[in-house]
Amino acid sequence: MFARTSTVSLIGAVGHVIDVQVDASPGVVGAKVVGRADTSINEARERCRSAMENSNFRWPSDKRLTILLSPADIPKRGPHFDLAIAMAVIGASEAQFPTELLADWAMIGELTLDGQLRSVLGALPMVMAVAARGISKVIVPEPQAAEAALVEGIKVVGVRSLRQAIAAVTETEWPEAPEVAPDSGEPLIRWRGEERLQDTDLADLLGMEDAKFALEVAASGGHHLMFTGPKGAGKTSLAERLPTILPDLDRDEQLELAAVHSLAGGLQPGAPLISRPPFRSPHHSASRTAILGGGTGRVRPGEVSKAHLGVLFLDEFPLLPTDIIEALRQPLESGEISLSRGEDEATFPARGIVVLAANPCPCGEYHPANRDNPCICTEVRRRDYRRKLSGPIADRIDIARFVEPQLGGGLILDPTRRPDSSQLVRERVQAARLRQQTRYAGTDWRINAHVPSAALRERWPMEMAAMQALDVEVHLGRITRRGATRAHRLAWTLADMRGLPQPGAAELAIALALRSAKPLDQAVVEHFWSVA
User: Fold this and answer.
1) Which of 4, 264, 418, 483 is most open to solvent, judged by the fewest CB atoms within 10 Å of its CB?
2) What's the predicted TM-score (pTM) here?
């Protein structure tokens, strides 16, 4: 007897549909799993045996079972193969229903010894892979049915047990079963962590017009940003308010982000889709695995991927280990992070806005323009500290700003002038992004920060005078070719903020100034908005 059904193998954020084929035939009694299965799948034989017997199904102990996971060259890992294996074994050994019924379904779920189901990681990206393959029906553990139902065009059935899965396939009477046990990783303590940022507003920050202008430019084009300055100057406050001026995520972006959090085990059953851009701020003492991703067993996404489509804030950036700093080159450049471990490779999306913050020295007191600064660091320590802020990483940062401490607490002397609120700035950002979406319609890019250099020069150049001025900057060695590309992107973002059809010399001049960390003249910023 032969039976076949389907499940999914996850390699990073990519799901591969796997055919689970079972052949029950006369021969040496035993069960053999073939097809690059890991330890958890090889152990599935014992889990499935007990689950079937405790669900009143007979394990074929008088036959030779061959369980093939095809394609055989794709690595398979995870206990979510249990349900598909058990269903295929029942189909191949029990004459209870036509085995052709199983071929129309994909099965996802871990079995307990009494035949109940448990939730698994990554249900959403698994169902997305199933839908892309053209399979129209999928069975998942009941708590993850709402998560799986986010994928359109597919019938999702949430079950609690192996017997309920059989009933779903055969369309027979639904047996009773206890609720699926909650995940062991459920949060036991809820506190105002990320939610506290919902009460912040850009209008809370008085003064700092130069830095807030840079923040709006970064939000409008998706540009990476670095703040340096003495401690207490407001670098963290600025970074925490960047998500408040980003537009809401659209439906496709919400699914992308939900898939990443599902892989990381952070998507709680019944929770709504994340509609606002995430804000992640790992401590500088966090491990490489926590920030970049990895781990034992299945490779999981790290903070750089959890911040996908949002903001990743790395405070005290020079205190990060050197290997983490160097590994950040890839997500800063390409918007993804690739992890290799032995024969395993995984790639996760990482298209968030990266905000780096650093003091001018280890103690945070040094100020080059203040002779009375109380810095206790030697020049050697300051030089070693600043070395991490230069070179390849700095060249991949679009905007660099030095944040000055605000005299008098940053109070605005003119009582009639009020800082723009996050809501007002977000509307301007959304308008700038809408222009970019219109320009890049039909391409793989959404915003200016995503567009490669070749496409920029060929399809979306600046005005001739601006292009010539940029080439002169490269020829004189003032910026690298990579820096020129980033200045070109910034110029387009500035043009989109002003509603111009093409960036010119004025936009390029501001773009180069934003990259230089030199303060923008207040008159330049006011003139920028006056002609917008």
Assistant:
1) 418
2) 0.86
